[in-house]
Amino acid sequence: MRAVSTFGSALKTTTPERSYPTLRGHPPKIELGDELHIPSQFTAPETGVRIEIPNTTRHVFVVAPLAYYLGADVVPGSTPRLVTESGFTYSLGCGADFADTVERVLKHVFFLDCIVRTEGTTPLPLHERDAIEPALAFNIETVYDQPLSAQLETYLTDVSFETVDRHLPDWSLETRLQPDPERVEFLPFVANSLSSIRVQDEPQPPTDTQPTVSTQAIEEFVRGDFTRSNSPVRDAELTTTSNEGTSIPTIEQRWNSSGSTQIISNAPLSAFHNSIGRQPKADPIEIDVVCNDAAMRDELETVDGVYGTRAELPFDVTVHYELSTDELEFVLESDTDFLHFIGHIDDGGMQCSDGTVDASLLETSGAKAFLLNGCQSHDQGLHLIDAGSIGGIVTHDDVVNTGAVSVGSTIARLLNRGYPLYAAVEIARKKSVVGEQYHIVGDGSIAIAQSKKGLPNICFMNDDGSQFKVEMKSYTTTGTGVGVVFTPQIEEVELYYIAPRKTDPIKISGMQLQDFIGLDTFPIILNGRVTWSNELGDELALN
Predict the structure, then answer these.
(1) Cα 241 vs. chain centroid, distance in angstroms?
(2) Residues 419-463: tens digit of each pLDDT
(3) In angstroms, how far is the first alpha carbon of the chain from the final one?
(4) What is the pTM of this model?
(5) Residue 221 CB coordination number (10 Å)
(6) Does residue 77 contact residue 52 with C-beta atoms inside 8 Å?
(7) Which residues of the chain have pLDDT under 70?
(8) Inter-CA distances, 78 with 53, 102, 153, Å
(9) What's the alpha-carbon Rg for the chain, to the nearest Å?
(10) Which residues pair with 254 in a beta bridge?
(11) Side-chain half-sphere of 425: how many Cα atoms within 13 Å?
(12) Distances in Å between the alpha carbon of 109 and those of 59, 233, 332, 353?
């Protein structure tokens, strides 16, 4: 409790502007030791807010993000509740309701801060303010000048959850972990993302297997070992802490996705530690593409024409063919921004011309992020994270080679445009059913490039023959967390939106659409089918 109470020391302000990610510093790292030691610089602000909870690891884990955002002291109490210096109290629920209530309070308070901050240093025309202000029982300007504890009381007494719920950002990230005291080291990183937390005593069983795709994968040319076994195909999800073939402790992060199964990441602590001190590069973005099977050169030719196609952003792409074990080990251990591996992977590791490379035996992994586009690559990817990488895209099952080419090229295009790993997987799943076989290890919010449009997004568009309607869904990354704002770059649209979220439908003319899609290359879902903005003009008569 005392350690989590220091998280608020990272806040750069206690005003509603802390809802901007740039004004929320990263909570201090926690290391396990024999006794508590808190350096003097980690003193939490005096916000007048405390969180009382029963003295259990489960309760501490769940309230960590809320304690961080409120700069609150976490102290023992018989009943979970918020308490302010004025004597105001608010129940945080009991039993099964506890985690749900904590999540709703965090989102509720955060969202209203986003509304109230428009009276401060950034008076932007905000879509969400226009939508909700008529339903608010308080004066926004007056509340802005209140201290944090008084704002908290106003938010929780004057505005119902139901009033706010339908206006919330698409806050989809959820973290699941077991109530093991050693998991306390994950809390600063989970709190920093303002993720909701669910504590589970036992890992949950798989929920999204894809038997049709898996069966097809066995019957066709696949990317696993050269001689397939008769053993059953793996489940599409692995448990939080027991990974097949590995003993690396992880937490599970989930991104809810409309029209798709959840995007799931198994993340070891090393994924977050490896990101510390990594700054955006001024030099060209370095990408290594490895093709270790001549039969898979279709994907190589596709992705080689994708990476580095942005004139405004320099890339240095190196392509490697049919490497030996020594050569692949050298590439894996060399510093690079992204590694795209194309080839066979089996229980022994990544296939080479003279054997296999087992990532668990590497001294270091130099790639910031990676795509292991082979069958059952999850365990090898997890070992790369443990050896130095931050995040990667992997498979749990066998994948059809033709599907892997399609998914690999789609992911390459998205990563090239600045999309984070979880967004790339989500869009790849919309593009192809084989995309359901792809998952994440490590930090799924990592991106290898910056988006030209500020925030990467996907556009949903319908054409009824007389008018176009577009909706834009934005994605956040490790560098642009929840609370950042964006505006659709469409003529006559002047409002800003809180990210991540999908905008309301925007009616535009053919000329406006032509200008819009000419701004950048980005994915568009047209009448339910994924295409790209630079290909749209060939499909529609724009006038």
Answers:
(1) 20
(2) 999 999 999 998 888 888 899 999 999 998 888 777 899 999 887
(3) 62
(4) 0.89
(5) 11
(6) yes
(7) 202-247, 258-260, 279-283, 299-300, 302, 304-306, 308-313, 464-466, 537-543
(8) 6, 16, 21
(9) 24
(10) 174, 264
(11) 31
(12) 20, 45, 44, 57
